[in-house]
Amino acid sequence: MISGAALGALPLLLSTGCSFNFSIGGPSAVDAEQVAERSSEMLAEQVGQTPDDFTCPQGLPAEVSAEIRCTLMDGGVNYGVTVTTTSVDGTNVQWNIQVDEQPM
Asked: For residue 84, what are the β-bridge partners?
């Protein structure tokens, strides 16, 4: 479980992005499941703990500045997460995640 103090620090810690290489016949979007999985891994690297759950209702468009909203659950508490595409280079898509400061 991620502590409340750790979650409170997430918005400050997540200035680096997550990178994912994908190939779907042409860059259009990163699959929602892959965005959630890689974002959860990035959070674990940043705060030393993996969230209980991380879900995204849709894929992340492979367009700079595209955003989707996801949900992180930890210790029975849900937090909104904004995932933003920061760069696209061929099939390499990078994104940042920003965890809301307040629970949902």
From this structure: 67, 96
Residue 24 has pLDDT above 80, yes or no: no
pLDDT, tens only, 92-101: 888 988 888 8
8 Å CB contact between 39 and 20 = no
pLDDT value of position 20: 52
For residues 31 and 94, is the Cβ–Cβ distance under 8 A?
A: no
Place of tokens 């400050």: 12
Tell me how far apart the alpha carbons of residues 41 and 101 are, in angstroms, rounded to a whole number: 19
Mean pLDDT of 73-87: 90
Q: Give the long-range contacts of residues 15-21, CB within 8 A, separation 24 or more.
A: 15/96, 16/42, 16/96, 17/86, 17/87, 17/94, 17/95, 17/96, 18/42, 18/94, 18/95, 18/96, 18/97, 19/92, 19/93, 19/94, 20/92, 20/93, 20/94, 20/95, 21/91, 21/92, 21/93
